[in-house]
Each structure stands twice: as structure tokens, then as C-alpha cells.
């Protein structure tokens, strides 16, 4: 079975849990998070050999996070522990499970996840060991992580490994919107697949229609596959071979959408790239993984096992 590496951010989400309007108290859940790490845990829960590559701080939070993803089955031998505080994101939940983020990291404060340096990793070993490598826009937002991650992606792409970008755009952690667009688009030629939300894809292309967006990204940047995640409307995926699938989402009670896109990524990578399922089947599987995640709080805690996804699909034919 293929091994998948996620390179990027592992951080702590502090999720504000909605309370009665009559209550003055605010309750929060401490939840492991970070898009790249979420995808790694999601893959491990599905039975895939998954590795996380990144940096955490040498503090209680960093060790808690590392212990959690290790217990979840993720390989952590290329994670560095450094003398920085571990990155924290405060997640404010809104109606319908949507959320807003306040992230404590560069450019506001120097924290661990953006401090991945080339000397911390063995690029040749990463390329040799892994068949699929995913990263995120968060990992590309600041140096030295940006240059390090791009080196891994470029070398992996040259060696015919499957490279995947989830743009995971958080504008406030970039120096500017213009820089974000330039960095993400200029790096696309080193990726095989783009897995983004409709809002991110529209921001990067100034186009609105999912099919037009996919055609543009495939023709201009040489991508093999573009996936557009559209929340309640489901997901649209198109390949360079003109195969396409538009699959509606499942109707579930949404509690928290934090990490839903990362859950979708894990489901799609497992079904399409690891199992080699047909495109439409893979999108449906990914939608199911994301739906199950949204039914509880946190990005990692609700990520389903393979048996749970199979059961859900049988119950929701």
C-alpha cells in the first residue's frame, strides 16, 4: 500500500463551544488540529500508512499533540521538537457549524509550525519513502517553512511522486493577499492535484464556476486533477483526461465544520489514489468522511475509521 506524507502544520485548536444565550460562561475544547496533520490522522484512521512532517514546540501542547497523532497511527519520525511555543488557533463557532479563526503564529508571533528548516529533514528520504505528498497553504505562508516545503514538493514531483496542494487560505497569516496568490499560483506547476474550497478557488482564479475553475487550473498549470469542495453543495472534481464528477453532500446534523476539508482530503486520497476507485465513487466516499467529521466537535477527534465510513454509506444509499 502507498505511503502518504503530510508536510506542514500541527497545532492546537481551542474551539469555543456555543452556549445558551442566557449563560455568561464560555466553554472550550482543546483539540489537536492543523490541516496537514488532520489529513494524516484521517488517512491513518482509514488504514493508510501515513506520515506527518513538521515542527512542534518543546512544551506541554507540543508533546500532547505528538502523542495524540502517534496514538492515532501516524508516523512521526520526521517531526522536529524545537524551542518555540506550539502554534495555537482559537476557533469561534458560528451558526450551522461554520467558524472563524484567530491564529497565534507568524506574522504576529514566532511559533513552531513555521520553523521547519531544510536541515531538519532528509529530503531524499522523504522522496524515497513516500508515494504521495500533501501540503497546505499555511505551510507556504512564511519562511523558513515555505522554502523547505517547496523543496520537498519540487523534488517529489521530479521523481514522479503524486504531489497535492490544499490551499487552506488564512489571509491574516500572509504578508498580503497579493503575496498569497503569487506564491500559491507560482508553485502549482510542481503539484499534480489541487484540493481546495470553492471560496479559495474563486479567490485564486477570479472565476466563479467550478468547471471553469478546474479547466483554467488544469490548462494553465498542468494539473492532473482539481477538486472543488463546496460544503453543503457537495464537491466537484475534474481530471486532465476530462473525467468529472459532481456529487452532492450527505444530509447530516452539522455540529462543527473545523477540519471538514481535511477529512474530505483524507477520504479522497484513500479512495482515488490508494484504492484506485472510480472518480465518482471516490468523491462520494470523501463526502462521507467529511460528513462524519462534521457531526462532532474538533478537527481530529471525530475522524472516522474505515468501518464507520462503510456503515455510513450503507445507511445512506
Architecture blueprint of SSEs:
Elements (H helix, E strand, L loop, with lengths): L2 E6 L2 E7 L9 E7 L1 H11 L3 E9 L2 H12 L7 E4 L5 E6 L5 E6 L18 H7 L2 E5 L8 H14 L3 E5 L10 H11 L5 E5 H8 L4 H12 L3 E5 L5 E5 L4 E4 L12 H15 L4 H15 L12 H10 L2
Parallel strand pairs: 1-4, 1-8, 2-6, 4-5, 8-9, 9-10, 10-11
Antiparallel strand pairs: 2-3, 6-7, 11-12, 12-13
Helix pairs in contact: 1-8, 3-4, 6-7, 8-9
Task: Please summarize what this structure is.
This protein is α/β, with parallel strands linked by helices.
Explain this structure to me?
β4 (49-57), α2 and β5 (79-82) form a beta-alpha-beta unit. α6 (198-205) crosses α7 (210-221) and α8 (260-274) runs antiparallel to α9 (279-293). The protein has helices at residues 35-45, 60-71, 123-129, 145-158, 177-187, 198-205, 210-221, 260-274, 279-293, 306-315, and strands at 3-8, 11-17, 27-33, 49-57, 79-82, 88-93, 99-104, 132-136, 162-166, 193-197, 225-229, 235-239, 244-247. With 317 residues, it is of the alpha/beta class. The two termini are 28 Å apart. Helices cover 36% and strands 23% of the residues.
Amino acid at each position: 500500500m502507498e505511503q502518504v506524507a503530510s508536510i506542514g502544520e500541527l497545532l492546537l485548536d481551542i474551539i469555543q463551544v456555543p452556549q445558551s444565550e442566557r449563560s455568561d460562561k464560555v466553554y472550550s475544547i482543546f483539540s489537536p488540529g492543523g490541516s496537514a496533520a488532520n489529513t494524516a490522522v484521517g488517512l491513518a484512521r482509514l488504514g493508510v500508512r501515513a506520515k506527518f512532517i513538521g515542527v512542534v514546540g518543546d512544551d506541554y501542547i507540543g508533546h500532547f499533540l505528538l502523542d495524540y497523532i502517534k496514538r492515532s497511527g501516524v508516523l512521526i519520525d520526521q517531526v522536529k521538537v524545537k524551542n518555540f511555543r506550539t502554534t495555537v488557533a482559537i476557533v469561534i463557532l458560528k451558526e450551522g457549524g461554520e467558524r472563524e479563526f484567530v491564529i497565534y503564529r507568524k506574522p504576529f508571533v514566532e511559533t513552531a509550525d513555521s520553523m521547519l528548516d531544510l536541515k531538519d529533514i532528509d529530503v531524499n528520504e522523504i522522496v524515497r519513502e513516500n508515494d504521495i505528498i500533501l501540503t497546505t497553504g499555511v505551510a507556504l505562508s512564511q519562511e523558513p517553512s515555505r522554502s523547505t516545503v517547496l523543496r520537498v514538493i519540487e523534488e517529489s514531483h521530479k521523481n514522479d511522486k503524486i504531489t497535492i496542494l490544499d490551499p487552506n487560505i488564512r489571509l491574516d497569516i500572509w504578508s498580503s493577499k497579493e503575496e498569497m496568490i503569487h506564491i500559491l499560483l507560482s508553485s502549482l506547476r510542481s503539484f499534480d492535484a489541487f484540493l481546495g474550497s470553492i471560496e479559495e478557488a474563486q479567490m485564486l482564479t477570479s472565476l466563479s464556476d467550478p468547471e471553469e475553475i478546474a479547466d483554467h487550473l488544469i490548462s494553465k498549470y498542468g494539473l492532473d486533477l482539481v477538486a472543488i469542495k463546496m460544503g453543503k453543495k457537495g464537491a466537484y472534481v475534474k481530471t486532465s483526461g476530462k473525467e468529472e464528477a459532481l456529487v452532492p453532500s450527505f444530509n447530516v446534523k452539522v455540529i462543527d465544520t473545523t477540519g471538514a476539508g481535511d477529512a474530505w482530503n483524507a477520504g479522497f486520497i484513500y479512495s482515488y489514489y490508494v484504492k484506485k476507485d472510480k472518480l465518482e465513487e471516490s468523491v462520494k466516499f470523501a463526502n462521507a468522511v467529511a460528513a462524519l467529521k462534521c457531526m462532532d466537535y474538533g478537527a481530529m477527534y471525530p475522524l472516522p475509521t474505515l468501518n464507520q465510513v462503510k456503515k455510513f454509506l450503507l445507511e445512506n444509499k
